[in-house]
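Async update (no meeting this week)

Hi team, since we skipped the sync, here's where things stand on the single-chain job. The sequence we agreed to prioritize is pasted below, unchanged from the tracker. I ran it this morning and attached the output directly underneath so nobody has to dig for it. Comments welcome in thread, and please keep replies under the output.
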Amino acid sequence: MRILLVEDDALLGDGVRQGLKLEGYAVDWLRDGAQADAALQSESYELLLLDLGLPRLSGLELLKALRIRGQTLPVLILTARDAVADRVQGLDAGADDYLVKPFDLDELAARVRALLRRPAAQAGSQLVHGDLVLDPATHTLSRAGQPVNLSAREYQLLHTLLSKAGRVLSREQLESALYGWDEEVESNAVEVHIHHLRKKLGTELIRTVRGAGYVIDRA
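Output:
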């Protein structure tokens, strides 16, 4: 899953990015509100982590512009402003959650998981395919009731394919879901992760569509 982090504090931004990358998320990090606004109009993200005190375009201005355009991706505000009035203002502008600095990375990761579950809430948060059950709440996978150990990248790749079951996804689309702008991506990285998933889950689950990409067929 791809997340946009907008934070002008270099130390905090790098810490959040590294922490979420360890959870398996692809994180793009920008320090400028205007740049972030342009990125949100040209790229696809599942979540926005937004500081309020940004250069050129404030976090609140960016949030209002996002909602005026009709973009519905979840937004989690990260800010040192802890007054009730500030929280109310952020939530009224269209934020989905509000976390006051300083915060614990484990709490941030939990809030990220909660927000990313929301679009699937009506259908149930778990992704089920045959005897496979992938649970975004715990970042776990089970098969016939038995846990299956996956790396963070393997989990995110499987989540992407399962959440779009029946759709063929190109290597470029999968790379975009797995890696941020600043990460070096080996030319065969997606193929390697798919090879590992096939070893753990069988060769029939992920189908290669020659010249197009990969797909998990609907169960």
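Quick observations from my side:
The CA atoms of residues 34 and 157 lie 31 Å apart.
The first helix runs from residue 10 to 22.
Reply here if anything looks off.
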